[in-house]
Model the fold of this input.
Amino acid sequence: MSKQQYESNIKQLPYAQPCVYAKLSDLNNLAVIKERFNDPAVRNAMAGKVPEDKLSQLQERIQEMTFDTDSVSCKIPPLGEVSLQIIERDEPKCIKFETVNSPIHLNLWIQLLPTSGTTSKMKLTVGADLNPFIKGMVEKPLKEGVEKLADMLAMIPYGV
Done:
């Protein structure tokens, strides 16, 4: 097994660091993702970037997601239900997650830094313990997944 890390690009957010942290540190607040994805304007914006069949699959996955204060769960074929659980909160800078019920052990860090009193930036990092065989199968989806997750989190209206 070797530890691999995958990082998203830095996302600029038009919201203050404490607002973003408050929303992301209680995962019940992420249920807004379901609502945003059903917004025709959001779907249209994604349509040019994501093929329609992938967009439909993504919508199906998002609609199956469940949230509580400390965890988010979703069904991922063929793995079944996989959950991310918050294992550490470092207000207002970082939230750390760990997989539960997953054949691959993953950690996720959401790092937040202020850029001004009203704006901030965010970066996601995924750490995974992978053997060489598994690494070849999941490396590309992990790289793409961390970026897509960062894009999705950057679209959330944190000021509401």
